[in-house]
Amino acid sequence: MNNEKVVIVTGGSRGIGAETAKLFAEKGYAVCINYLTNREAAESVKEVILQQGVRCITVKADVSLSKDVERLFEIVDRDLGTVSVLVNNTGILKTQACFEDISEARFSEILRINVMSCFLCSKEAVKRMSFKYGGSGGVIVNVSSRAAQTGSPNEYVDYAASKGAMDTMTKGLAMEVAAEGIRVNGVRPGLIYTEMHASGGEAMRVDRLKSKIPMQRGGEAKEIAESIVWLASDQSSFVTGSFIDAAGGL
Ligand code: NAP
User: Are the C-beta atoms of residues 163 and 149 closer than 8 Å to each other?
Assistant: First the structure.
């Protein structure tokens, strides 16, 4: 148990986060599944993970709020041990809309949940991983989106802009903490089959757009999990400040 690495997956109850949590468990990590409201989904991922014979906890926390984030990391310190990998996976989008119809409140919420969550969780992770604070290093993987580069016109420019901010943070933080034993990288998924598209008002969005993808199909959450787990592994030990575009050629 002493050599067991500990991973926190924010938004680990569903979609890409759930597949990522399960894949880390297969690799022998102790796993913290963070979620916001869907306790049942989080517990069902935990059940699968426990069957791998590794430790697993679920923690309800709104990772866009500093007091929740501090509590999340304290629970992990206490119940699993010091975090070695943080996956900033939490992300939301709202109904497809023209730019001028996006309200100030909506834009603010998107930035708070998609960007502040990454900032706040990464801060707590750096305080534990960094050599200068007595840590033994670690890895942060940020789940961004191809939207950061396409801009998502006529759908959700607010969401795309939040992912652009996440990418800039990935680059800057990677360089700032590289000598402190921490690698920071990003994964930019394309169109992936998850429940997120229903939040945008179009559950079947991936199928509508898949003919525009060079590979002619949408991606599976497990395919994104593979990239995330690789970036967290020793196989990518010289990779930092980098991005994997996992988007079928988009
Ligand atoms: P999803 O299926 O909608 O799942 C979202 C997860 O985030 C859930 O576990 C949810 O918890 C959690 N969550 C939401 N707000 C939270 C908060 N404030 N605090 C803590 N947890 C919160 O999403 P997904 O499609 O797997 O997306 C995962 C990541 O990939 C996101 O960052 C998304 O932007 C990115 N991405 C997805 C796609 C795609 O096509 N699906 C493409 C590009 C990028 P509950 O279960 O409790 O609600």
Answer: no
Rounded to two decimals, what is the model's pTM? Answer: 0.98
Bridge partners of 245? Answer: 188
Length of the chain in terms of residues written? 250
Which range (2-16, 31-45, 126-140, 142-156) has the least confidence? 2-16
Instruction: Kindly give the number of the ligand 1 atom that is closest to the alpha carbon of 64.
Output: 18
Cα of 89 vs centre of ligand 1, distance in Å, is 6
pLDDT tens per residue, range 139-160:
999 999 999 999 999 999 999 9
pLDDT in tens, 55-87: 999 999 999 999 999 999 999 999 999 999 999
DSSP 129-171: H-GGGT---EEEEEE--THHHH--TTT-HHHHHHHHHHHHHHH
By the 8 A CB rule, do 139 and 174 touch? no
159 is catalytic: yes
Residue 2 confidence (pLDDT) above 90: no
Pocket of ligand 1 (CB under 6 A): 10-11, 13-17, 34-38, 41, 62-64, 89-92, 113, 143, 145, 189, 191-192, 194-196
Number of the ligand 1 atom closest to the C-alpha atom of 192? 40
Between CA 161 and CA 226 the distance in angstroms is: 25
Nearest to 206 by CA among 244, 248, 245: 248
